[in-house]
Amino acid sequence: MRRLINQRPGRGAALLLAMLPFILVLCVYLYHSHARLAENPGDKLLPAPQTIAATVHRFAFEEDERSGDYLWWTDTWASLERLFTALAISALIGLVLGVAIGVLPYLRATISPFVAALSLIPPLAILPILFIAVGLGELAKVILIIIGVAPVIVRDLAMRSAELPNEQIIKAQTLGASTWQLVVRVVLPQLWPRLIDALRLTLGSAWLFLIAAEAIASTEGLGYRIFLVRRYLAMDVILPYVAWITLLAFTMDWLLKTLRAKAFAWAGAN
Amino acid sequence: MGGCQLTQVTVKHLWKEFGKQVVLENVNLQVGDHEFVTIVGASGCGKTTFLKMLLGVESPSRGQFLIDGQTLPSEPGPDRGIVFQRYSLFPHLTVLENLLLGLELHGAPLLGRLFGARRRAALAKAHPLLEAVGLASAANKYPAQLSGGMQQRLSIAQSVICEPKILLLDEPFGALDPGITADMHTLILKLWNMHKMTIFMVTHDLKESFDLGTRLLVFDKVRTDPQSPEAFGATITFNIPLKGHRDPG
Question: Contacts of residue B92 in chain A, CB cutoff 8 Å?
């Protein structure tokens, strides 16, 4: 008998094992949903699968009576637009400041402690300030995500660029590189895959800040909908929305991972 | 003899101290054009510090360090190439791109990339060198896919393509299998004679230093104080002219 650490599942078995927890959770849900509904057909806490399916159909494929929108898709689009805008701006800030801090000692001395302090402010604590300063519109929500995510990316990329072996930096100079050339030919190209890693890691908190901002002040969006229907205990809406958000986040993570592997083969798997 | 420019390296009464610790004391040296200077000495006796000063990443505490009568710049530059023991290749560039980098940086200040006819001219210069270091068949591989010996050959070629006046080698073959060092020696001598530069090589291998050099420098401490070992630094205790492998003519 080989040691447990040396026993590995095959491809098929691995897939099956990966699905096992999902199936298990689903079974537990179905069992308890059935039991509660048998006792009280009006129970709203664990709606039956067909109720959820009907709700999803109503939200995704039927016009809303009041607004005439397909709520599922308008909510999704509104949320994704905020998320992508914020992530794109954060990535840009992260790259520019991260590289600058990592490469230029004077900027490092000036900005690095400030960014470190900034990144420790709980973003939700300054949400009121944002609402007061820029109003309740889209801007406040996007800024909240940026405040939550950008400092982390900046610090990560600054550390990554400072981690580049000194030999490389010196070698580039002996090949005649100016500071600018060093950035565009040596540092930046090696940071792209790091940026993708940083985005993947901050995706979770980006969603957190998005939902928080939408819950407090919004008229559409996935987080808004969840918190709206909470008043009616509408678990048949909340549950599929949560599953949908999870699926969206998972897909984004997978896309980033695939992009990294395809576009930056030299960087290996880590 | 020699290339178009004659390179003279002059060191006068050079001292290097880190705080209270004296690393080098009163180093004097005169090196002529197209010499192959090999540097040996015990660990921690300042030979790497000496090389770093030549490179421009350390500056002398006292004394003069002159190239062609000019004070050495206090940062690395294209007139002094370097090959480290490791990590001096760019992992995100292929072998060919690594080799082209110096030419591209030289020719394109803004983008650091060459296009069209100028790129073809750079390629025409790179390919013979790629052949010379035996990496033509690996042109499109990344450094991580190369063996240690191939990486060092590429690193040397990468420096040589910029035609530095001085090439600095910091234990370049120290991490390689003994079997391939002979090939590396042949290669470095070939490039040295082709490009007529001055080479400074730090090595641990005494035989290597005699085989390759036209001049052997031994760094050692002349005085030691057992109570405070940091009080005295090392200096050049032997400066031995060797026959070397200079091409006739």
Answer: 189-190, 264, 266-267
- For chain B, say whether A189 makes contact (Cβ under 8 Å): yes
Please check whether residue B159 touches A, CB under 8 A.
Answer: yes
Q: Is A186:A177 a contact under the CB 8 Å cutoff? A: yes
Average pLDDT over residues A153-162: 93
What are the residues whose beta carbons fall under 8 Å from the beta carbon of B34, sequence distance 6 or more?
A: B1, B2, B3, B7, B192, B196, B197, B198, B246
Closest by alpha carbon to A172, among B40, B53, B236, B91? B91
Smallest CA–CA distance, residue B57 to chain A, in Å, is: 8
Which residues does residue B167 pair with via DSSP β-bridges, in sequence order? B81, B199
Q: Which residues on adjacent β-strands are paired with residue B238?
A: B218
Q: Comparing C-alpha atoms, which of A92, A93, A84 is closest to residue A138?
A: A84
Average pLDDT, chain A: 92
Distance CA B83, CA B161 (A): 13
**Which residue is listed with tokens 């001096």?**
B88
Q: How many helices (H) and strands (E) does chain A have?
A: 11, 0
Q: What is the CA radius of gyration of chain A?
A: 24
CA distance B183 to B135: 13
Give per-residue pLDDT as tens, B95-144: 999 999 999 999 888 888 899 899 999 999 999 989 888 899 999 999 99
Q: pLDDT (tens digit, 9 = 90+) per residue, A191-245?
A: 999 999 999 999 999 999 999 999 988 889 999 999 999 998 899 999 999 999 9
How near does any CA of chain A get to the CA of B167, in Å? Answer: 10
Q: How would DSSP label each residue in A95-120?
A: HHHHHHHHH-HHHHHHHHHHHHHHTT
User: Does the pLDDT value for residue B191 go beyond 80?
Assistant: yes
Interface membership of A22 toward B (CB under 8 Å): no
| A263 close to B (CB below 8 A) | no
* pLDDT score at B5: 58
Structure token digits, residue B1: 């003899």
pTM equals: 0.85
| Helix/strand/coil for A257 | helix
| Domains with residue ranges and CATH for chain B | 1-79+165-243 (3.40.50.300), 95-163 (no CATH)
SS (H, E, C) A125-165: HHHHHHHHHHCCCHHHHHHHHHHHHHHHHHHHHHHHHHHCC
pLDDT in tens, B4-49: 457 888 888 888 888 888 888 888 888 888 889 999 988 878 888 8
| Three-point CA angle B130, B99, B103, nearest 5° | 120
Quote the CA–CA distance of B127 and B139 in Å, as a whole number.
9
Domain spans, chain A:
4-46, 60-267
What is the strand order of the sheet B80-83 is part of? B70-71, B62-67, B9-18, B21-31, B234-241, B215-221, B36-41, B198-202, B166-170, B80-83
- If one looks up domain A60-267 in CATH, what number appears? 1.10.3720.10
| % of residues, chain A, pLDDT over 70 | 99
**Averaged pLDDT, A7-18:** 94
